[in-house]
Amino acid sequence: MSYEELLTELSLADEHFIVMTAENRALIRNLPKLLGKRFIDTGITEQTMIGAAAGLALRGRVPVVHALASFLSMRAFEFIRTDAGIPSLPIKLSAFIPGLLSDANGPTHQAIEDISIMRGIPNMTVFAPADEDDMVKMMPLIWASAKPAYTRINTRATAYVHAPFEPGKAEVIETGTDVTILTYGLLFEQALITVEILRGEGLSVGLVNMRSLKPVDEQAILDVVDGCDLVVTLEDHFLTGGLYTIIAEVLLKHQKTAKVLPFALNEKWFKPALLPAVIENEGFSGKQVAETILGYQTNHNQPEILKSQFSE
Amino acid sequence: MQNFITDNKNLEAIALKVREHILKMSTGGGCFTGASLSAVDMIVYLYAEFLNLHQDNLNDPNRDYLFLSKGHDVPALYGTFAELGLIPKERLANHLSINDHIYWHPNTHIPGIEFHSGSLGHLPSVAIGVAMDIKIRGGENKVICIMGDGELNEGSCWEAVLVANAYQLDNLIFVIDRNNFQANIATEDLIPLEPLHNKFTAFGAAVSRINGHNFNQLRNAFKKIPFAQGKLNVVIADTVRGKGLPSIEARADRWFCNFSADEVGQLLQELHGEHQTQLTSETLVVR
After folding, report:
1. pTM of this prediction?
2. What are the φ/ψ torsions at residue A255 (nearest 5 degrees)?
3. Residue B256: which of B68, B75, B86 has the closest Cα?
4. B127-158 pLDDT tens trace
5. CA B184, B187, B188, B192 torsion: positive or negative?
6. How many Cβ atoms are within 10 Å of B267's Cβ, its own excluded?
7. Domain ranges in chain A?
8. What ipTM score was computed for the predicted complex, to two decimals?
9. In order of start, what are the domains of chain B with their CATH numbers?
10. Whole-number mean pLDDT of chain B?
């Protein structure tokens, strides 16, 4: 099932849903004719779209709003904080091409601080599915919640079949005692490769798909820290404010220390190109991550599972 | 309070009481006195006469809505609510108290306030969302959003006009409190707005320009809503900052006022047509 099929099914069955966009229809091409007046395109006006979503939510609706992640999270930031966050309205933000998924668009389109700024808003919840299967399992519960939510939309298909989503819970894929990778979003796909390579080198390797960055599954993090020698964070986000920072906050809160190796964008935007090249260029491919962890080159190949994502 | 009070004398009496309330809030920390006084008459008219909104239908989806986007004039709203019985008058004494919610910008702890504001240029779009939902459901209720003229510097106001017209929201009324001042500078000296009427009509709205202190003109304008089928209604209400108190009227430096108790006493007399007050309190307090 695709995101659009899911939203179509749920919004046709429930009059509370209003599907909105600031003229970014890539995910919802068929919805205008199906939903009629419950489909609202405000044009290229992210701020007005969020304000209007607040008004619709005041009238009992659940607006699911769509825009590019960078413009949604930043152009409309104060509207989200003030009009969705302060009154805690159930406005559902679907952020398209977040993180590395903006591939060749350039730094204007790079939402790589979105998790940091969105999780800083009281009442806001923040999600980053690993792939389309994960997203389709998460969205019904995200939309059913009474809280505002920011979701990094990720329509990439992978072969992995995810467990059902439990709000506030991470998906523990594997547990390991030598290295455990904590990740979210599209780099989950790479982390699966890293796990295979490290395992081939004789290590006991764990993997956690974080899924929900806020609320974060503190127990899953503490279990990893307590049971494993090295914790790796892998994220297509600035080093500041994302998963690496969240881990630091959780460790400090529980007065624990751990050896943590972060993979993130450190004080820089990424070089734009098609997605496979972007991932390689930042050293985020499964093979590169494995080799950085091992500290030596291996004979493994990076499987050809990367393919470029269209973007608008 | 549709058809509750349709007599100008009554409206004037309420507006005078509201001005007294505003003055009494203009001390012990103060408030945005000048900006509140320009909006008093339109707010009193709308709540006392035009809006289908009263104590007993505050949660009725078929009520009319008023959004105060120019949030710093909320003392005019507090005073009006106290006079019309939405909040007890005694509660106004809690202005700025940590034990209540009567502070410098609107919030929904006050019954009758639909949405918080303070950051300019937000509520036009929130009002659009409400007006859109009313249209979707085939409702007849009206949605008003009061904006300041300085607020029109914000691009989001003009986005909202474009979108409101695109969606033919003729159930939506933007009321501009045209008191000719930004925070502390005349609008025409900083970011000129005129010809304002033409700007709105160029954006597709149907516009009426009136004297915002004249109840007959307010009534005649609002009676004609919708001004045109399928068009956003804009009422430009020409007003005077500090209206009712000659000693602070139309002064750039009397936006936020924190008067001494003695000054408040004198200004209350001035409000009732007594001598003009000699003000000694600090001016040009910018918040």
Report:
1. 0.95
2. 55, 50
3. B75
4. 999 999 999 999 999 999 999 999 999 999 99
5. positive
6. 27
7. 3-152, 171-294
8. 0.94
9. 8-271 (3.40.50.970)
10. 94
